[in-house]
């Protein structure tokens, strides 16, 4: 069975600084990988996804992620965070038909200092 | 207007009560999902339905049941609620004919079982 680990429960970053969120997965086949963001009181919104091809994936809101098969990782990055990036971020791996069954990591809560 | 709606948004109930959470979508998607979110555990899949006549258990289905009344409606029931079912519940949809494999989430229902 697939699994996802997000080692950092909380991260605090200053506004304007760079951000990197870690994600490690376990899955026996080629993974479908996703990053979702959950703003306070909101549902989840897809930031970006990886299925195949270029291992550096660009998403919305200035985020990008890099798939590294050798490290079983799919880390999320943003060069310069904004106060509105304060949220909880979830990494997920998709299995089953077309990756429709998602397994989520525990999430990383990002706090942004002024 | 929201594409995936959930009712109620908040619910407080007592142990042993039957409760139903409802999900409706206007996206025209054939696949629907129910997840629960607990702090530190991310989202876990309760049930999923690939069409009206296809309903499947997820990883934590015990104590829950579902009904797919129509393509656009997917309800989650707790027959006899217990306190450890206190959580944030999300409905999601996806399109089997789509190429993005993205799941679209509702705003969530916060359920408290006393």
Task: Describe it.
With 114 residues, chain A is mostly beta strands. Chain A has no helices and twelve strands. The mean pLDDT of chain A is 91. Chain B is an all-beta fold. Helices cover 0% and strands 56% of the residues of chain B. Chain B has strands at residues 4-7, 10-13, 19-25, 31-38, 42-51, 54-57, 65-70, 73-78, 87-94, 104-105, 109-113. In chain B, strands 2, 4, 5, 6, 9, 10 and 11 form a seven-stranded mixed beta sheet that branches. In chain B, strands 1-3-8-7 form a four-stranded antiparallel beta sheet, with no helix packed on it. The chains are: A mainly beta (114), B mainly beta (114).
How would you describe this structure in keywords?
heterodimer; A: 114 residues; mainly beta; six-stranded mixed β-sheet; globular; B: 114 residues; 11 strands
Number of strands of chain B: 11
Would you report the number of β strands of chain A? 12
Our estimate of the beta-strand percent of chain B is over 45%
Number of helices of chain A: 0
Biggest β-sheet of chain B, characterized? 7 strands, mixed
Characterize the quaternary organization of these chains.
heterodimer
Shape of chain B: globular
Share in helix of chain A: under 10%
> Uncertain regions of chain A: pLDDT < 50 for 5+ in a row?
none
Give a brief outline of the structure.
Chain A is mostly beta strands.
Q: SSE layout and pairings?
A:
The complex is a heterodimer of chains A (114) and B (114).
Chain A: E1 3-5, E2 10-14, E3 19-21, E4 24-26, E5 32-38, E6 44-50, E7 56-58, E8 64-68, E9 73-78, E10 87-95, E11 101-104, E12 108-113
Parallel strand pairs in A: 2-12
Antiparallel strand pairs in A: 1-4, 3-9, 5-6, 5-10, 7-8, 8-9, 10-11, 10-12
Chain B: E1 4-7, E2 10-13, E3 19-25, E4 31-38, E5 42-51, E6 54-57, E7 65-70, E8 73-78, E9 87-94, E10 104-105, E11 109-113
Parallel strand pairs in B: 2-11
Antiparallel strand pairs in B: 1-3, 3-8, 4-5, 4-9, 5-6, 7-8, 9-10, 9-11
